[in-house]
Amino acid sequence: MSHEEKLKNYRTAPFDARFPNTNQTRNCYQNYLDYHRCNKALTAKDKDPAPCEWYHRVYKSLCPIAWVQKWDDQLEAGTFPGKI
């Protein structure tokens, strides 16, 4: 199955062995970081950031909207605590 087909058929976040517990807070945060890191890296190399969509969809399905809005605001303000 190609990357595009996987994204098209995506419904919710799949199991991630790095986060085996029920509490998915760290999974949410890690996928948010991974999306922005991926996007930053590929954009800097003038490459298409489409492969980063996977992380975007995962964090959108796991993270509460209020958290994402807060993190996006912090990114814009330059006060986001994570390393991107």
Automatic annotation (TrEMBL):
Localization terms from the record: Mitochondrion
Listed GO CC annotations: mitochondrion; respiratory chain complex IV
Disulfide bonds listed in the record: 28-63, 38-52
SUPFAM superfamilies listed in its UniProt record: Cytochrome c oxidase subunit h
Keyword terms, alphabetized: Disulfide bond, Mitochondrion
Location (main, coarse): mitochondrion
Sequence similarity: Belongs to the cytochrome c oxidase subunit 6B.
Described function: Component of the cytochrome c oxidase, the last enzyme in the mitochondrial electron transport chain which drives oxidative phosphorylation.
Protein name in UniProt: Cytochrome c oxidase subunit
Species of origin: Oryzias melastigma (Marine medaka)
Record lineage: Eukaryota, Metazoa, Chordata, Craniata, Vertebrata
